[in-house]
Amino acid sequence: MSGVLQDYRDRSELSFCALLEESGLVLSWKATPDQWQVDELGALAAGAYGSIQALSRRAGETGFEGCFQHGNRRSLHLYSVPPTFLLLSIFDSGIAPGVVRLYAGEASQRLQQYLRKLTEPSGAPEGCLRSGDLSWDEVEKPVSR
């Protein structure tokens, strides 16, 4: 999982990327040396994604995959990793959003394959990880403040 995120960050020239559970729990992340409040970013990103997804449904859209926020210095991209995960990306505004979207789709597919092995065969509810499925080598601890 960590290798997929590193490859995605390198190819997209991201400042930061993270795999989140839809509740905002950060499972793994990769970043440039900038100071990031990882837990806070995860919670805010999950809330923003849920809000925009609900707004999209109200507008009659059924095929919601993600969203962009374009800023003066940095831009954000949130992308769905089914069944219940999100890919958060932060990148300099000079990076083409289409490049980020393309590589996010590829990373999402690779992460889905990995996550499917962890979530579905156990008999646990879809989207729930089994106890002992992940080692600390596979899931990086978020940085404490």
Layout of SSEs?
Elements: H1 2-12, E1 16-21, E2 26-31, H2 38-58, E3 66-69, E4 74-81, E5 85-92, H3 97-119
Antiparallel strand pairs: 1-2, 1-5, 3-4, 4-5
Strand content: 15-25%
Series of secondary-structure elements, N-terminal to C-terminal = HEEHEEEH
Can you count the helices?
A: 3
What's the CATH topology label?
Answer: Beta-Lactamase
Please identify which CATH superfamily we are dealing with.
Answer: Dynein light chain 2a, cytoplasmic
Radius of gyration: 15 Å
Q: Quick one: how many beta strands?
A: 5
Unreliable residue stretches:
135-145
Oligomer: single chain
Summed up, the domain count is 1
Q: Which structural class should the secondary elements be placed in?
A: alpha+beta
Helix content: 25-40%
Given the C-alpha coordinates, what overall shape results?
A: globular
